[in-house]
Amino acid sequence: MAMKDIYVHLDASADCKRRVDAGVRLAQRLDSRMTGIAVVQRPYVPPYAEVEIGAEILEQHQQAVRDTLEHIGAAFEERTGSAGVDAEWRIVDGEPVGVLSEHCRYGDLLVLSQDADSHDLLPGGHEMPDRVILTAGRPVLVVPNIYDDGEIGRCILVGWDAGRMAARAVHDALPVLQKADKVTIMIANPEPGEDGHGDLPGADLAAHLARHGVNAEADHVTSKDMDIGDLLLSRAADIQADMIVLGAYGHARWRELVLGGVTRHMLDSMPVPVFMSH
Question: How far does CA 78 lie from the centroid of its chain?
Fold first, then answer.
C-alpha cells in the first residue's frame, strides 16, 4: 500500500501557501505526486441584485478570479518544482466542496486548511473542511492556521477508541505511519469489560501495526477533569507530535452537517496537521 496521489486545494486565501507547504513536505516523505485544484465558483448574488449588477460585471469578476488563480497555479508549480515533487494543477468551474470531493476520489489524500477564508461573494468558506471531510470518501489532511512549514509525519499521535471511524483513519494513514519514526496510540479514558479495550488498551492495535512495519507503542490516560479532545491535544504536546490521526465523527442530516464533539474540538484547536477519515 502506498500514498501516491496527494491533492491540495489552491485558492487566494492567506492559508494557501501553508497547505501547499504541508502537502509538499508529505509528498517528499512518501514519494507522492501532487495535484493542485483551483475552483472558480460563480459568486452568490441575490436575484434582486443580479439585475442591478449586470452579467458583464459578473463575468469580469469571474475573469479576475481566473487571472488570480493562474498566478497561484504558477506559484504552485514553482514550489513543487523546487522541492523535486512531480505535480500538476488545474482550474475547475463549480462549487468548491463538490469539486474537491469529486476530484480527490481519484487520489489518496486531500490537503485542506483549518479555516477557509470567506470572501465577500463566496459565503460558507468556514464550513469547507467539515463538509469535505464528511462527503469526500477519502482521507483529508487538515493544516492548522499556525503551520510553519515544519516536519510532518515523523512523530504521530493516533487517537484510538476501537471504533469504526478510528479504524478507517488508521488504515487510511498506514503509508504515513510506516514512514514515521514513532507512532503513539493513545486511548483516553479507556473502559474495561466486553466493550472496552482489553487488559492493555491499544496493545492489539500496536501489534497489528508492528506487523505492517510501524514503530508503534500503546498509551492511555484517564482524567475526569479534561475532555477527550483536550487530553489528545495535551498528549500531542507532551510527545511533540507533528501529526495527529483521528477518525472524523459526524453525519449529514439533510443540509445540516453535524460533527462529533472531539472532531469539532480538534478542528477548532489543532496545533499540528490532523489526518482525518470518515
Answer: 23
User: 5-143 with 155-277: one CATH topology?
Assistant: yes
Report how far residue 214's alpha carbon sits from residue 278's, in angstroms, rounded to the nearest whole number.
Answer: 22
pLDDT score, position 114: 87
What pLDDT was estimated at residue 118?
A: 43
| The model's pTM | 0.86
Q: What is the CATH number of domain 5-143?
A: 3.40.50.620
In the predicted model, residues of the chain with pLDDT beneath 70 are: 43-58, 116-127, 191-200, 249-260
The pLDDT score that the predictor gives to residue 79 is: 97
CB 115 within 8 A of CB 128: no
Per-domain residue ranges of the chain: 5-143, 155-277
155-277, which class in CATH?
alpha beta
Strand order in 5-10's β-sheet?
Answer: 87-93, 33-40, 5-10, 109-113, 140-143, 274-277, 243-247, 155-159, 182-188, 216-221
Place of cell 481519484: 106
In angstroms, rounded to a whole number, what is the distance separating the alpha carbons of residues 146 and 156? Answer: 18
Q: What grid cell was written down for 55?
A: 452579467
Which three-class secondary structure state does DSSP give residue 229? helix
Could you say which DSSP state residue 122 is in? Answer: B
Q: Where are the beta strands (DSSP E) in the chain?
A: 5-10, 33-40, 87-93, 109-113, 140-143, 155-159, 182-188, 216-221, 243-247, 250-253, 256-259, 274-277
